Amino acid sequence: MRESQTAEARPYHHGDLRRALIDAARRLLESEGPSALSLRAVAREAGVSPAAPYHHFKDKGELLDAVAGEGWMMLDQAIVAAKASAPSIHAAMTEIGVAYVCFATNNPALYRVMYDTARDKEAFPEKMQDGEDSAYCKVRDTLIEAGADPSAAVDIELATIAAWCSAHGLAEMSGFKQFEHLKDELGGEIAFFRAVFNHMGLSPHHHGS
After folding, report:
1. 188 φ/ψ sector (left φ>0, alpha ψ -120 to 50, else beta)
2. How far is CA 157 from CA 65, 126, 185, in A?
3. Residue 72: which of 138, 16, 125, 140 has the closest Cα?
4. I want to staple 104 with a disulfide (CB 3.0 to 4.6 A). Which of 36, 111, 112, 143 is the partner?
5. Residues 96-132: pLDDT tens digits?
6. Which helix (H) or strand (E) holds 134?
């Protein structure tokens, strides 16, 4: 009781409370999994009253959407950094793919929530696909910079989806023990990821008419 009273009296600003709740939800997600996530548990983790989350989220679903949105922004930042560090624009798609898989393997519960919250919606999450700065558009634009024909709209769309699905597939399978010998032979996990992407034929030159 004393803890709750202290939490209720804590002078959170509106944005600070929302941020604290999302951060607490992410910590719980990675340590205990989605099933442990509830507004009450998140309030306890954040050190606020049980009623506090309802100022920002009507239910667990809204909280998960906010957490997923955070994940998409983090993935977007990883893609930006990967593209910037690539030695050439033609190597950028491979580096983006590697960054994607590393993000997924380093944040497994968050990654799962990102796709679980997107699966039943009519549109992709805003921070994944909408707007020219979204992660999806960065992949598309990288393909165009590497030589894909920007006027071939359907080809560009299919190539972007192919690249995204390839990264998603490798992320899902990256931990398979059956790949350990290849990781050892190639010099580690990152080298293995790069080698897989280099064998996928995702160069935009494969997609023109």
Report:
1. left
2. 25, 17, 35
3. 125
4. 111
5. 999 999 999 999 999 999 988 887 666 555 556 555 6
6. none
Domains and CATH numbers, the chain: 2-58 (1.10.10), 61-206 (1.10.357.10)
CA distances to 9, 68, 119, 165, 190 from 137, in Å: 44, 18, 19, 14, 24
CA–CA distance, 188 with 180 (Å, rounded to integer): 9
- Render pLDDT for 158-171 as a digit per residue (tens, 0 to 9): 999 999 999 999 99
Alpha-carbon span 144 to 149, nearest angstrom: 6
Q: What is the dihedral of CA 164, 152, 137, 190, to 10 degrees?
A: 40
